[in-house]
Structures are given as structure tokens and as C-alpha cells.
Amino acid sequence: xxxxxxxxSMVILLDDALTQLDLLPSERGLARHYRIGxxxxxxxxxxxxxxxxxxxxxxxxxxxxVHLRAKLLPGGDREITWVRRTRIDGDSWESFEVPLGETQxxxxxxxxxxxxxxxxxxxIQPSWTYSLAQFEADAAPGGTLMVAQISDRFGPGxxxxxxxxx
Length: 166
Prior knowledge:
Helices cover 4% and strands 34% of the residues. It is mostly beta strands. It has one helix at 132-137, and strands at residues 32-36, 49-53, 66-72, 78-83, 107-113, 116-123, 127-130, 144-151, 155-156, 160-163. The strands form 3 sheets. Strands 5, 6, 8, 9 and 10 form a 5-stranded antiparallel sheet that branches. The chain has a 3-stranded antiparallel sheet with strand order 3-4-7. It has a domain at 60-163: Immunoglobulin-like (Sandwich), CATH 2.60.40.
């Protein structure tokens, strides 16, 4: 931030008057009409902006897992592991693992080859064994393994990705 602002610079004050909209889960994704402006001037003032917006509830979306790794096991199976992240109380360095922040722990695993989904599976722990038979059936070398945490309120979050090699 500069020490001195040029004359005519716009300033927006963010204080306690700015609040988050309180939407019901059933209202996510529905277009709603909003009027933005000074309350004292009324909704018909020419300086009041009319917007139609729909909000998807991105604040409910789980974060993507991190440290996605594949370890080749004897016999050719691959042990896939990752670490979950959380939106709820995840800032403490004191705990062994961050709180789940969901009603249950679930992950969507997706294997893509040539832009096509060849395998999907839901697991309930931050690991999955990709057997040699599955790997060969999927023709997975050169494909991508993807993992997303699933939220009951939002669905799958963003995917962490890992390139699959022979």
C-alpha cells in the first residue's frame, strides 16, 4: 500500500456495516435481485446499483487435499496417500491433525486417461490402494489420479492431482 494516495483515489471502508448474506441451503444457486447503495437515499436513487446474482456457497467448499503421493508396493500395487485440510479451526499447530469440519470423512478418487474418467471411487480415509490389476485395466500409465474431499453441504471440493507413471 502506498504511503500517499493520489488525489481522486477511491476508498472503500470495510467495517461492521458489511455483513455476509444469510442464505438458506435451498437458496444456493438461485438468482436474487440486490440493490447496492446508500440506505438513506432509497432504492430508486440513480446511484443505487441493481445486480442479479446467484451464489454457490463457495465458503462451504472443502479445500483440496495436499501431499498427494503414490508409493509402489511389492507386487505392483500403489498406495495412494494424502493429507486433508479444513476450513474449521485448522490454524492451530498444537493438534496432531486438523479437525474434519464435515459430518463424515469422504474422498472422491478419480482416474482419468486421455481426458476420460476411467475409474471413480469414494473412500472414507485419506488413503487408497490402486491395485496392479486396476492400474492395468485402466491403462493408467500417462493418466492422472485425482482426489477431492466431499462435503455433505457442498459436494466434492477441488481435486488434488498426481500424474501416473508406469
